[in-house]
Design brief:
Helices cover 44% and strands 14% of the residues. Helix 4 (115-127) packs across helix 8. It contains 8 helices and 8 strands. The chain starts with a helix and ends with a helix. It has helices at 2-29, 38-48, 55-76, 115-127, 144-156, 189-197, 219-226, 247-257, and strands spanning 80-84, 106-108, 111-113, 130-133, 175-181, 204-211, 231-232, 236-239. By secondary structure, the chain is of the alpha/beta class. Strands 1, 4, 5, 6, 7 and 8 form a 6-stranded parallel beta sheet that branches. A two-stranded antiparallel sheet has the order 2-3. The structure holds flavin mononucleotide (FMN). Flavin mononucleotide binds at residues 86-88, 103-104, 114-117, 147-148, 151, 181-185, 210-214, 240.
């Protein structure tokens, strides 16, 4: 009988121990069924983290978009345009043209342009403005002397050379820097063609010229009469011989007008 009681007690103890062991295992492996338990809510803090990541990623992603937005604005949302005519971008020059062979041909940022094109690039770089090159369908001669004669003929005939390039989105711009070389005391007739086909009413025109010494001649008044609905600001005159080194002059002028420079 004593032996039986010992065996019986041992069985009871074994069963109790087994029951305790099962309870502690189920407590670890079943956090979900006990969400209302305040004790279990502590381990649920990590399990609630997957719900929190919604606001958490929101912070880094908005920080990223903050970084991206200014770059997008800089690239795509300028309201300023530099429209210019330059001989070298309107002539059939040989591919291996020697940029130092003519006073009106410049190699700039790896491209062939002229004096006015160089000043236009400087303005665009300083202000973030878009660039638009006024180009004719019929190219000018590849010698400067022949071009001087053709320019005189076109002026005498009050010609309007047909343009190969057309500004599609004039309405996107409020400020138009308008650049040209002085040709026979006037603008090249291709610039008249350009002004004929764009409506700059309500916009600001900021003229700039390059020349052998004549400066603007009478061209500011001409622009004012052709674009009477626009405000024409103080222009910049750059000497042909100093166009390539005009960055400081350009920046000072831009600063004086309140544009970046
Ligand atoms: C057809 C023609 C006429 C010109 N007439 C004048 C002029 O009357 N006064 C002047 O100072 N420079 C005159 N020039 C010189 C240009 O204005 C000067 O070289 C200018 O910087 C050229 O700019 P680009 O290289 O952008 O074409 C003339 C040049 C050409 C081709």
């Amino acid at each position: 009988m004593k032996k039986f009681l010992i065996i019986f007690t041992a069985c009871i103890l074994t069963l109790i121990l087994a029951a305790c062991s099962e309870n502690s295992t189920s407590g670890d492996s079943q956090p979900e069924p006990t969400p209302s338990s305040s004790q279990i809510s502590v381990p649920q803090t990590p399990s609630s983290e997957p719900e929190d990541p919604e606001p958490l990623p929101a912070e880094p992603s908005s920080a990223l978009s903050d970084e991206e937005q200014p770059a997008e604005e800089e690239e795509t949302e300028t309201n300023m345009l530099v429209a210019y005519f330059s001989y070298a971008e309107n002539a059939d020059l040989p591919d291996d043209v020697d940029a130092s062979a003519s006073a009106s041909i410049q190699a700039w940022n790896g491209e062939i342009t002229g004096n006015t094109g160089v000043v236009a690039a400087m303005i665009a770089e300083a202000t973030g403005a878009d660039l638009f090159s006024i180009q004719t369908v019929e190219k000018y001669p590849d010698t400067y002397d022949a071009t001087i004669n053709q320019g005189q003929e076109e002026r005498n005939q009050d010609a309007r050379p047909e343009l190969a390039s057309h500004l599609e989105n004039t309405e996107s711009y409020d400020v138009i820097f308008l650049g040209f070389p002085n040709w026979w005391g006037d603008m090249p007739m291709a610039v008249y063609s350009f002004l004929d086909e764009v409506d700059l009413s309500g916009k600001t025109i900021v003229p700039f010229v390059t020349s052998g010494g004549s400066g603007f001649s009478n061209t500011i008044r001409t622009i004012e009469s052709l674009e009477s609905g626009a405000a024409v600001q103080q222009g910049l005159s750059v000497s042909a011989s100093s166009a390539a080194g005009a960055q400081d002059q350009v920046n000072e002028w831009l600063s004086g007008l309140g544009y970046a420079g």
